Amino acid sequence: MEKKTENLEKFDKNFDQKKMDQKNFDENLQEILEIAQKLIKMPSVSPNDGGTLDFIANFLSDLGFKIEFFNKNGVKNLYATIGPGPYFCFAGHVDVVPPGEGWKHGNPYSGAIEDGFLYGRGVNDMKGAIACILVAFKGVLRVNSDQSLAILLTSDEEAVAEYGLKYVVPILRERGENFRVFVLGEPSCQEKIGDVVKIGRRGSMTAIATVFGVQGHIAYPEFADNPINKMVKICADLENLDFQDYDEIFGSTALQITNLDCFNHASNLIPAHAEVRFGVRFNKSQNQEAIKTKVAKIFDKYAKKYEIDWTFHGNAFVCTDEKIQNWVRNSITESVEIEPKFDGKGATSDGRFLSAIADCIEIGFQEKMAHKVDECVGLDDLNNLYKIYKNLILKVAFIE
To answer: Which terminal residue of the chain has fewer beta carbons within 10 Å of its beta carbon, N or C?
Structure first.
């Protein structure tokens, strides 16, 4: 039987009433869906915002928020506040990765609804979460207009991340903006909304390393120096590198090889050099220099001449404040009856910049759906994330 696909413009009123009652959906789900679909339908492949930030700014302006933009080098950054502070600040990004091919509904920006799921590039990471927080802000201000709320969004997170929050945070710190806590809408959960909250993230470094040899004919290896032989041994040791630093929150520091190449297409030629690319995700017990030293020892063991070009992306960070952890735990348990687990595993986020000025936690949709073809979120998940966000805001005074 062919599955039924519905767009919100054709949202069946019977489906609306029946499903809402049956699943005890919050009455605000309709508005969340409308906003999420509008955001999905604005293609915003990084660093383009696709018009999303102007739409969000208009929504917030109608609620009484003060609107500011910090734009640089084609990147748009939105900062909006209401109240004197200290702020409960939702942070995140509107940019998305390229959609890829093979979407079941054809258009990756359709915002189609099918079998209780909302589809579209960016709905999981993280336009759906943005829709939830906007409606949560609206609901909270309706009952308590004295809340101090803020939102900080960028169009530069998925790619270079140079002129997004990395650029804006020092400006806000210099101005003395007063933040109580940051909540990022990054994917964080495993199976159910609220089952995992990120209270930190691992640090990140990447490298491009080149081992040099001597080019020659494969028939005369004695007159050449094959860098591939050295690089194979180096890669084996890199793969088995044990940092011996297991951490309950972050796990162990890990190195992963991402590419290996000698740029040689001739079958009878020993190449002059070989290149390997790798990344390291590290916990709080490591630092840049310690990691570089461990890696260099491996290269020293096998190669006479080599170069390593390192790029540092950010240190590990973690929120250890028990009041904040209790606030998060109690808000989630009350909202969705789940006892959340706290960890710092997974991808690097803009929390590495935000944590310099206030504690930061992350809660969003399931990690496993991020960046995939047919990216989607469940309608019940949208409803549950909205409830969690709203409860976090209403209970934020408990972390004073």
So the answer is: N
| Domains 5-201+316-399 and 203-314 belong to one CATH topology | no
Res 6: pLDDT: 42
Domain-by-domain residue ranges, the chain? Answer: 5-201+316-399, 203-314
Q: What are phi and psi of 393, to 5 degrees?
A: -65, -45
| Other beta carbons less than 10 A from residue 2's beta carbon | 4
Query: Of these residues, 49, 95, 156, 247, which one is catalytic?
Result: 95
Give me the mean pLDDT over the 98-119 stretch: 95
How far from chain centre, in Å, is Cα 144?
A: 30
Could you say which of 1.20.120.790, 3.40.50.2300, 3.30.70.360, 3.90.550.10 is the CATH number of the domain covering 203-314? 3.30.70.360
Catalytic residue among 157, 225, 350, 381: 157
Asked whether the beta carbons of 127 and 94 are under 8 A apart, the reply is yes
Taking the C-alpha atoms of residue 318 and residue 248, their distance in angstroms, rounded to an integer, is 12
**pLDDT by residue (tens digit) across 350-391?**
999 999 999 999 999 999 999 999 999 999 999 999 999 999
What are 250's two structure tokens?
A: 């972050």
Sign of CA dihedral 93, 99, 104, 106: positive
Q: Give catalytic status of residue 289 as yes or no.
A: no
DSSP 191: S
Q: How far apart are CA 50 and CA 40, in angstroms?
A: 10
What pTM, to 2 d.p., does this model score? 0.86
The topology under which CATH files domain 5-201+316-399 is: Aminopeptidase (3.40.630)
115 is catalytic: no
| Cα-to-chain-centroid distance, residue 310 | 22
